[in-house]
Amino acid sequence: MTSETPKGIQTWIHFLEEGAGQLWLERFLMAVILGVVVVMYHFVEARNFSAPEAMDQAQIARNLAEGRGFTTWNIRPLSMHLRQESDQSHGRSGSVLPVRHHPDLENAPVYPILEAALFKVLPAGTRYAAAAVPAPIHRIPAEMAISWMNIGLLLVVVVQVYRLGCRLFDPVVGGLAAAIVCGTDLFWRFAYSGLSTLLLMSLLLLVVRVLVTWEARSRPDAPPVRLGPVLLSAGVGALLALMCLTRYSTGWLVIPAAVFLLVFGGARRWLSAGAMLAVFLLLLTPWMVRTWRLSGLPFGTASFALFAGTETFPDDRLIRSFSPNVASVALGEVAAKAINNAIHQFQDELPRLGGSWLTGFFLVSLLLPFRNPTLSRMRLFAAGSLAVLFVAQALGRTHLSTLSPEVNSENLLVLVAPVLFLFGAGLLHTLLDALEYPFPLMKSIVAGIVVTAMCLPLVFAMASAGLSVANQIPRRHLPMVDPPYRPDIIRDLIGSVPADGLVMSDLPWAVAWYGAHECVGLPLRLSNKHVEDFFAVHDWQRQVAGLYLSPVLCNSPMQRSYFQKGLLGQFDDKQPGDPWFDFYLNVSLRGRVVALPLKFVYGPGYAEEGHLFCAEQEWWNVRRSR
Fold first, then answer.
1. Which pTM does this prediction carry?
2. Cα 359 to the chain's mean position, in Å?
């Protein structure tokens, strides 16, 4: 009956209620619901990029797509320092910054390459952020394309969770976990963030799936197959290398993977673990060699993440330094950083990991035994991965987590959330089965209520979207992340600078992405005859054509009196506070630039909003006269 085409109304009803049509009807309804969620979320909740890493990787991808190689327009002072030291050690001249050919020493290559492939199929004009105004449905075309790519990756994650749940548990648990993953607002925020998080989630789920197959074929009673445990373990190494080349910090997952292979590998445990490590290092080595030749370190500026955020290098001080003395960082400072971050993660991040209560069910499931040994072993791998990523996140946390809380590339715990959801859904299903229901349909109703409760943030967002579209309530926010990211203002300010002109800013990633110009991050000092000041770039590297200060700096809260006698005009380390903020106040109060050779200030309107732009020439008047 189900394999033949239905004929007549009765056979159609049977086909849809009990036959194969029921499955297709469910899939169709899920596709419709998902399409509605995507459209409503895109029109009301989606915003332009707010994570600096997303803009940084996008502008690298644009350089790749346009044939400039793995270069960056977001030039970090620390990267300049490493590049100069490497040039000097190899006998090369490193006194001048090349035009638009500064190699990126911060990011892993896989995600920018994926974005570059996307840019290749898009019209060339969409790679640049055209002037944008805050409109209800307006976003940068290139950012929209990246978001749609990540939405596709989110759907891949949902399908993987369902299939893995069917294999480890049953279709009910798989569907329960997949529904909650699809209804988690945090995952949708990552989809629109422009970050590589969803790609990493998909790769980690593949690692788990391969390990499940490896575990089944490593048992003593397992029949011999062509794709044996050693080849599967090599596949795990390849996937972990791909994750590490997407985000360096995920390379620490090789530890729980190696432990898993050694503990449960049986007679071939050492061979399996060795094959995994060999493939992992083999695939990682070429990129490490490239970065070593350019910077003297295997992971470039990312190698300093351990020292960022310590007492010696608070906030973004390390990345803005031309000559950091990391040897001066005491071990106690690193330990204090790790402990403080671990406390924050225990109190704030771990209880709401993944943005869903389902993580709590996983933590409770750690106290309960499984009859199936595969489930017990995979749960141990998930717990081990969570523990390793917990430590890595505590040690590697930098100022990026402050600039974009929760939705940032340093949020490593969220990567393992879909795997934890599977085990949490398993316990939830067991608890729902243990209840007594007055009639069978009641069980489905209760399960639906529980799933809806766990997806309430997204439900409320969709309700807000529906009311906003119906003009019953105003939008919760504009698509622009303002302050500080206003593509229209950045394009208007930076667009007047000549193409080969170098800009300096406190938001170099935004200038590189939205302004399409090479931009150096603010040095630590303004002007005090020190090697780490503005003139270390302007006089000894390349002339700075313009300086852009954003609301992040200009609207900083005043923590001291800036108007006491003798304070204004002093730009050195002897004075407390940020000298660049002092500079902004001087320009605002005196109406002219002091201490810098950039004497012209862009006048109309933007300074009052916290956007200050100074330049060596009034290029904006030349542009308007054309």
1. 0.90
2. 21
